[in-house]
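fyi for ur records
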Amino acid sequence: MPVQAPSSSQKTTMSAAQFSRLQQIIFERSGIYFQDSKKDILESRLGHRLGELDMGSYDEYIMFITIGPYRDDEFQEMFNRITTNETSFFRNEPQLNYFEQEVLPVLLEAKSATKRLRIWSCACSSGEEPYTLAIQLHRSLGVRLADWHIEILGTDISEKMLKVGQTARYSSHALRSTADIVKSRYFNEVNGFFDLDPEIQSMVYFEKLNLKDRLSALRFGTFDVVFCRDVLIYFNDEMKQHCADLFERTLADDGYLFLGHSETLRGLKSPFEAISVPHTFCWRKMTATSTKNNGRA
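which gave:
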């Protein structure tokens, strides 16, 4: 007798064993570790999906994402539902001000001979962060921008979010932290949405990347700055160390790493030293020749 799909008023319960299996699948595929205390959150976010697929149990869903013919597509769909893609342009303005006013002048001076600068925005979601950095570089360099080779890479595990970034069209909510003068200079409002200036859009390129995949990450080469904000909070200690090792490999000597406000590298093995300026959450890759001056860039 076939299993009846749950009605809209009927809730499919996730057992401890089912949660443990999903917990394992998510970690193996993405590096994200759902703590035991997050079982109710996972159940809540996936429960509606089971109804959409006419599935009556999580065992059926687990088979679908592990051995089904559409397992890769469904994992992407599941990932979009269980993760939070909350972002905006100019998020955490004090940190970005430090990047623009303190870090960028140092880097532009250091790179004045080659006029090449590379920035990586990890887990960039729908692109607001890398485009923000592009705007900052545009207004910092001004007419000199034409003489520079600027590369800003935005990566994310979610193809859905990357497609939004590639369109470069955003709602007013995405610009809620953006000054009016920046909106008028770099965006064109069309039918209630905001299209980004094509010149800024051309400074950023997007690639799908799972941070667990070290070899895929290393193929992008070396960067002068890495932004990885509000990502490590989803990882366990093993995955955090993996990321620290990855950033050590991908950051140039004396490069800068920006983390989220609740994240740290303390307790991990890494060559990074925290910059002791309030609200920056910035780390610098130190070398034997680095000048250490009380944390100032």
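The chain has eleven helices and ten strands. thats all i got for now
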